[in-house]
């Protein structure tokens, strides 16, 4: 074997990221600096919400709360709320950027040539057609090196129709009349343990863990996009859906680190990863504990150039788990990746990468069933969902199929399935709306326990269900995974005792009774990411309601001023006003924020608008704390709540149509 194809330095899309960042953060706003004024408003907690005196339905006012505890309230969001509806549409189906169909395919054990593709490849004479495969494997990087290199065996093993494969990763080439016509990559799950060494003893069988992740999908977006998957989860698998699962950090890394190690990013730096050039080998990943218990471990992730431990990081030195898919996906992506949309290649050759990943998961689980091995499998799919709000829809059938398969094959009779995301979408239009902002902080989480286990350990299930309506975090999920190392200890007595002695802590097992008065603070959720919101209706003629509304009207007029054919708008009436904030409203200090959502009528045209005006307090040098000045800005765009009809025929711009009242 010779070392080759090594040290692929990959920093290609940094410019792209910067571009995305700017596109994502073009929040339209005007920054006004206003003097501090005391809030002279009477606050009435509108809870539950009452219908107000206006005729048009303001959806938010009809909403209840999903999480309704002493410590946290999270509003129930309508996936198709008018304020976000414009961002929800059908995308064009993804097609791989290749002209020819696949010529070779793989099943659990073998490679075979797809005869029906011969025509497309103009293969007529089989005596001049041959394929062969190269075996490759991971090459452990040296200190400071990235986790990308492979060793490839230069012997190409020939086959014509099909061949049994005993290796994990192969590269395939096919030739017709001496010229290369096809290149592809395949992965298998060969046993990496002694077969038939299962000791039949009286010990109870452990529960395998299957963690299936879909990057960047809020709970609400999952409901929008993946109806079939939702249906299987809820109706067939009887999964528990967590309504108050709140992210603890901005992007994928901190949120998954919390699950996999129980540590925050800062703590991780102190404990095991001091330097961005370090590898993560010494970190206390939960899979190490499962490994100690003789579970077979596997970690598989698509879109691997921006991998959880590899994006601007160095990954691992020794491969972290028994099966490590990155070796395959990175290599294949480098050589046959195509159809790059925004960040990453969606396809490997003629196949969608997330589908290859799902097939791999199925093969992995099948193999473990055949070999009767308990497993811990963490897989993460970012390719499909990372960049586009409306792409997860394309994966709906495939995820539904996989979950259904796990169900039908009784895999889930001995496996805990955890289906989750890390956060909602972090850019694109919806992110600039109030709801999009909240969704971003609330990823989905579903947990499925074997039916018999729920019966035998009723308190586990009871608590799980109760906790689904409480504020929960990735740290809790970590604790839960620790509990599942020894699922048979979780008797009602054990849980009751633990509940009595446990003092308030940052994390709880989801099988424990999470305190009803838990707050973002006590759960260590930074207030910036806290989805617990207090909504307070304020008088429409109060100073802040009027100020916020006038600000919104001025904002509209500023937009309109570029269009000579549109008339200036004047405020006619404020319909409703409310303020939402997180944290303690009486201790607002520097950086504190309040969001005023106002709906109002303007003339001419009697247009009804809804705007969210954010008030941000800041401290200036020399000013007393009492005199906190603040800025106002529009978050997202201003929504039009009634139809504009022919009022705006004189403009074609989509957004201006909402605002423009044409000169006659
Ligand atoms: C390379 O592959 C060939 C064919 O499978 C095999 O005979 C040989 O032992 C392999 N070489 C190494 C170093 O594994
Ligand atoms: C996989 O494909 C090979 C070759 O076509 C076939 O002989 C084998 O039965 C297949 N195995 C499974 C599990 O389908
Ligand atoms: C193969 O290639 C040779 C030379 O390039 C050519 O003469 C021959 O006709 C080809 N045969 C087939 C079956 O295409
Ligand atoms: C980080 O690692 C690099 C390379 O090993 C080393 O040169 C540097 O001093 C380290 N920095 C810190 C803060 O440890
Ligand atoms: C598709 O492939 C063509 C030719 O290789 C290339 O020019 C084009 O940029 C690719 N498009 C995408 C979206 O990857
Ligand atoms: C499910 O698992 C339980 C406990 O391990 C076992 O008793 C039962 O037979 C299994 N059922 C099926 C359908 O495999
Ligand atoms: C929740 O209630 C417990 C006991 O009543 C109390 O000790 C704890 O401080 C409370 N936590 C918060 C965050 O208010
Ligand atoms: C707002 O209007 C109500 C009823 O019209 C009135 O009682 C109240 O004093 C007004 N508040 C302010 C701040 O003007
Ligand atoms: C519209 O309003 C802007 C600012 O409020 C003002 O400068 C402008 O003169 C007005 N235009 C008309 C036609 O009234
Ligand atoms: C809110 O902040 C004020 C002022 O700092 C403090 O007196 C009050 O106790 C706080 N309330 C809560 C519920 O933390």
UniProtKB/TrEMBL annotation:
<dbReference type="InterPro" id="IPR004245">
    <property type="entry name" value="DUF229"/>
</dbReference>
<dbReference type="InterPro" id="IPR017850">
    <property type="entry name" value="Alkaline_phosphatase_core_sf"/>
</dbReference>
<keyword id="KW-1133">Transmembrane helix</keyword>
<feature type="transmembrane region" description="Helical">
    <location>
        <begin position="14"/>
        <end position="34"/>
    </location>
</feature>
<dbReference type="Pfam" id="PF02995">
    <property type="entry name" value="DUF229"/>
</dbReference>
<dbReference type="GO" id="GO:0005615">
    <property type="term" value="C:extracellular space"/>
</dbReference>
<keyword id="KW-0812">Transmembrane</keyword>
<keyword id="KW-0472">Membrane</keyword>
<protein>
    <submittedName>
        <fullName>Uncharacterized protein LOC108732897</fullName>
    </submittedName>
</protein>
């Amino acid at each position: 074997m010779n070392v080759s194809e090594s040290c692929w330095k990959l920093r290609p899309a940094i410019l792209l990221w910067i571009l995305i960042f700017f596109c994502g953060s073009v929040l339209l706003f005007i920054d006004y600096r206003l003097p501090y004024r005391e809030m002279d408003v009477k606050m009435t907690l509108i809870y539950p919400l009452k219908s107000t005196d206006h005729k048009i339905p303001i959806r938010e006012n009809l909403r209840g709360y999903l999480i309704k505890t002493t410590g946290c309230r999270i509003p129930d969001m309508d996936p198709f709320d008018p304020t976000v509806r414009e961002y929800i549409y059908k995308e064009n189906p993804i097609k791989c950027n290749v002209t020819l169909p696949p010529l070779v395919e793989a099943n659990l054990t073998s490679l075979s040539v797809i005869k029906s593709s011969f025509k497309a490849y103009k293969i007529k004479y089989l005596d001049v057609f041959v394929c062969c495969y190269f075996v490759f494997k991971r090459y452990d990087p040296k200190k400071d090196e990235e986790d990308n290199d492979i060793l490839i065996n230069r012997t190409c093993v020939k086959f014509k129709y099909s061949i049994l494969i005993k290796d994990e990763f192969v590269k395939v080439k096919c030739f017709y009349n001496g010229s290369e016509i096809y290149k592809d990559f395949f992965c298998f799950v060969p046993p990496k343990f002694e077969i038939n060494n299962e000791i039949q003893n009286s010990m109870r069988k452990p529960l395998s863990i299957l963690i299936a992740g879909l990057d960047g999908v809020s709970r609400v977006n999952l409901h929008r996009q993946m109806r079939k998957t939702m249906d299987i989860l809820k109706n067939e698998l009887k999964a528990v859906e967590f309504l108050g699962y709140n992210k603890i950090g901005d992007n994928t890394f901190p949120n998954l680190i919390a699950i996999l190690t129980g540590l925050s990013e800062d703590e991780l730096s102190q404990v095991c990863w001091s330097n961005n050039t370090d590898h993560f080998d010494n970190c206390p990943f939960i899979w190490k504990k499962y490994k100690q218990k003789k579970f077979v471990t596997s970690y598989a992730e698509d879109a691997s150039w921006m991998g959880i431990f590899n994006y601007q990081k160095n990954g691992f030195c020794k491969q972290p788990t028994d099966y490590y898919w990155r070796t395959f996906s990175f290599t294949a992506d480098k050589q046959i990746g195509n159809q790059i949309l925004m960040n990453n290649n969606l396809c490997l050759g003629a196949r969608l990468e997330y589908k290859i990943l799902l097939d791999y998961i199925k093969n992995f689980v099948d193999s473990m069933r055949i070999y009767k091995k308990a497993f811990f499998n963490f897989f993460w799919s970012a390719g499909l969902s990372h960049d586009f709000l409306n792409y997860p829809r394309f994966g709906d059938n495939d995820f539904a199929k996989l979950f259904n398969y796990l169900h039908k094959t009784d895999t889930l009779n001995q496996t805990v399935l955890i289906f989750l995301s890390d956060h909602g979408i972090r850019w694109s239009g919806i992110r600039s709306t109030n709801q999009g902002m909240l969704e971003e902080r609330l990823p989905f989480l579903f947990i499925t326990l074997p039916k018999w286990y729920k019966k035998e350990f009723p308190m586990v299930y009871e608590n799980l269900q109760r906790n689904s309506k409480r504020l929960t975090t990735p740290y809790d999920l970590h604790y839960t995974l620790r509990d599942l190392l020894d699922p048979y200890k979780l008797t009602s007595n054990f849980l009751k005792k633990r509940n009595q002695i446990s003092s308030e802590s940052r994390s709880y097992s989801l099988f424990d009774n999470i305190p009803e008065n838990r707050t973002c603070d006590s759960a260590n959720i930074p207030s910036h990411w806290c989805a617990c919101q207090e909504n307070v209706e304020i008088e429409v003629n109060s100073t802040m309601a009027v100020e916020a509304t006038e600000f919104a009207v001025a904002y509209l007029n500023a937009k309109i001023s570029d269009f000579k054919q549109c008339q200036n708008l004047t405020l006619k009436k404020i319909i409703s006003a409310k303020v939402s904030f997180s944290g303690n409203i009486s201790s607002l200090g520097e950086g504190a924020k309040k969001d005023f959502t106002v709906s109002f009528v303007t003339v001419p045209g009697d247009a009804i608008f809804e705007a969210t005006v954010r008030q941000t307090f800041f401290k200036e040098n020399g000013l007393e704390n009492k005199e906190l000045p603040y800025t106002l800005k529009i978050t997202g765009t201003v929504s039009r709540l009634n139809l504009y009809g022919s009022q705006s025929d004189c403009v074609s711009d989509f957004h201006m149509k909402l605002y423009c009242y044409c000169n006659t």
